[in-house]
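Please complete every field before forwarding. Incomplete forms are returned to the sender.

SECTION A: IDENTIFIERS
Entry label: holo-231
Bound molecule: flavin-adenine dinucleotide
Molecule representation: SMILES string

SECTION B: INPUTS
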Amino acid sequence: MLNSETWCVVGSGPAGIACALGLVAAGKDVTIVDPGVQLEPARREACLTLASGPVSEWTPASTAFLREGVTGSSSGIPIKLAYGSDFPYRHVPGATSITSDGADTKPSYARGGLSSVWGSAVLPHRQEDIADWPISIRDLEPGYRAVLQYMPLSARHDDLSAFFPLYSDRSAPLPMSRQATALLATFERRRASLNANGVYFGSSRLAVEARDSNARPLCVQCGLLHVWLSP
Ligand SMILES: Cc1cc2nc3c(=O)[nH]c(=O)nc-3n(C[C@H](O)[C@H](O)[C@H](O)COP(=O)(O)OP(=O)(O)OC[C@H]3O[C@@H](n4cnc5c(N)ncnc54)[C@H](O)[C@@H]3O)c2cc1C
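SECTION C: PREDICTED COMPLEX
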């Protein structure tokens, strides 16, 4: 039972968590209400087993479950699963039905909402992109800064910063793959002509913790996004 001092946040997706953290920071007592669908225990165990050992010991057989249910083609994948599971999209009995008109929506009843399956790519809006919105970047900036107080950000200060400000001084970049390093080096060699043609480039930004509190790298560069390193 919630008392009159308790604030109730509906949903544990990114919006709900941001709201709850804002309320907690303001000294409020918060309860989050959520259907809370989660990854099946066996898959979770398998993830933790992988994360507890060195990547060199991972085998095609031990990582096969991560790719289950996904058949890729040249046009992409029909639906992105998380650790081989469709739990982020699973319906819950009794859930209010959602209808949409002109938008392709997929509701989530998972703990963490669709952030349990998202790609974690994060870029702020640009004023040009929201010119017809009733709010401006100036209105959004305090929110970006507040969220980045607790949301990890893997990012580099590069040419993109002029278009997409970092809004945080505590970003730590993930190490880049060989392919990404080579691609950026190729762009770098052609920077002048690319810029002259209105093309600017930089590293992608991810809501991922690149280093632990002792500045040790957390990413094991296994190439399989969404594998935990710790429970
Ligand atoms: C495959 C995929 C990849 C994506 N990649 C990216 C990306 O790289 N970068 C990016 O910025 N965005 C990405 N997104 C979009 C991003 O995940 C969503 O924009 C974001 O999760 C929306 O957050 P939200 O809190 O508004 O809603 P949701 O994440 O949908 O959370 C809704 C929450 O409400 C709860 N809920 C639902 N109904 C009820 C109810 N009746 N009562 C109580 N609780 C309820 C749910 O359980 C859930 O916890 C991706 C989405 C998908 C599906």
